[in-house]
Amino acid sequence: MRAIWTIAKMSLVENSRKQVFHVLCLLMLAVIAGSTLLSIFTEGVKLKILKDLCMTCILFAGAMLAIALGATGVPNDVETRTLYPIIARPIARWQYVVGKFLGTCLTVAMGLGALSAVFGALIYYYQARFDWFLPTAALFALLEATVIAAVATALSTIATPAVAAALSFMIYLCGTIKVGYFGGMLDRASSGLVRTVGTTVYHLLPNLECFNLKAALVHDDAIPLSYLVLVAFYGVCYAAFALGLGAVVFKGREV
Amino acid sequence: MTPAIKTNELTKIYRLPGRRTKTAVNSLSIEVPQGVIFGFLGPNGAGKTTTIKIILDFMRPTSGSATVFGLPTTDPATRRLIGYLPEQPYFHKFLKPMELLSMHAALAGLPRRRAKEAAASALDRAGMTEYADTPIGKLSKGLTQRIAIAQALVGEPKLLILDEPTSGLDPIGRRHTRDLLVELRNEGRTIFLSSHLLSEVENLCDVVAVLKGGKLVALGTPDEVRSSSTYVKVSTAPIDDDTRDRLQFLGVGIERLSDSTIVRIDPKNLYAVLRAMEELGLPVIKIETERESLEEAFLRLAA
Lengths: 255, 303
What we know:
The structure holds two protein chains of two kinds.
Chain A: H1 2-15, H2 19-34, H3 43-80, H4 83-87, H5 93-127, H6 134-156, H7 161-188, H8 192-204, H9 214-218, H10 225-251
Chain B: E1 5-15, E2 21-32, E3 37-41, H1 48-55, E4 63-68, E5 71-72, E6 82-85, H2 97-107, H3 112-125, H4 141-153, E7 159-163, H5 171-186, E8 190-194, H6 198-204, E9 207-212, E10 215-220, H7 222-225, E11 230-236, H8 241-248, E12 253-256, E13 261-265, H9 270-279, E14 286-291, H10 294-302
Parallel strand pairs in B: 3-8, 3-9, 6-7, 7-8
Antiparallel strand pairs in B: 1-2, 1-4, 4-5, 9-10, 11-13, 11-14, 12-13
């Protein structure tokens, strides 16, 4: 565990100083700050739009950070040979992969934490009270980013940064529209083979929509605790599955 | 005593595109005794780095095996005994040396309390204490190399595997490193050193192994690897290409300098060559006997 935590810390220090991290966070902060200029709407509508826009920014920032950092961590270490002194230590390859993934998640958490704090302050300003559902929504945005980070890290153990990032982004897109779009397509598929292959791919793709609590935040809907627990469990299991695959692949890789 | 490193018929064959293969290491069997500085030499592509990577379990051999202090190299716990300095080391540029070494001490399995002390001690031994808090990205190549040496030392390894340890160092740094390696050897550690600076290897190493085409072509002390026979070195005037070709026909070695020519002659052929030089009108400026240097032995064995 100590080895994993050490690699995660090393990764966090390095990631938090990367340009992509600063640029993405500043960009989203600018969008969140800009959302306060929606003066043409009434206060009630304005608050809903603010929540919608800010939550979208947080979800998007989380996903993009997870892809940008997760897809590049391992390949960059291999290419620059920063990896060699690390795996020359008495650590297993899977510990290195998990450490890099954890470092990515911690960096994303840092970014989303900052964005959520600004978002929370804005809501407090407009509502004169704190929205206690916001931390839950932000946490599930982080969980979604964690799943994406696991996929990106797993892909990065076999692909170049560009390929891993592109594939991760595709999986992110497909995972976001999976239930609404692909579910309907499969139902209409005429060929049995297409349906079988399609169903397999459908179930392998992560269901990222379930982590999106934006609608509940905007409309002040209540979400059952059982749903949240189930979704959290699904997220942890999927991330572990993706990461496990990546660790197995990396174990056999010659560097 | 258990050898520090032992390879047994170690072979590594790479598969190339188009069903071709390349044998990088070919049935290599060596034993590195404990407590020595072992020089691992060979031309580019001889299989040195591949052998090191197999010992560190960066890759698996096609056949054969390797052990470190009798333990399998495939067990991560074995690497607790090893400190590794890669060729052209690179570290995350935003980290500071103290941060980097503390993390490596933790990865090496040192307890939290000792990790910081070990990092400070390693920095001190590498002569880098004053740069402890300077981001690595701001250090020169030579200073980064010294940090890499410190990184290999942290964790108090019994075996140090160093790939070109003095690369990028100025003469002071090289001297410091050489003295450090002798000190470490005297402490009982084993140093496995891969280097192209043969003059350094000759003065530093207790045992050398020479690789060529993945195969071991020589193993022994530097004295044993060098030819025991002497040769005669004759200095003469500068020569043209035609004269050079005529002399080379006699089986001599020729080195053309800007203001002279060195002719290396097997003592058996000395008089025949001197007669030929006289006929060619070449004056004898200096004549002396010499023993083959390690570099000359390397060229003889591996070129």
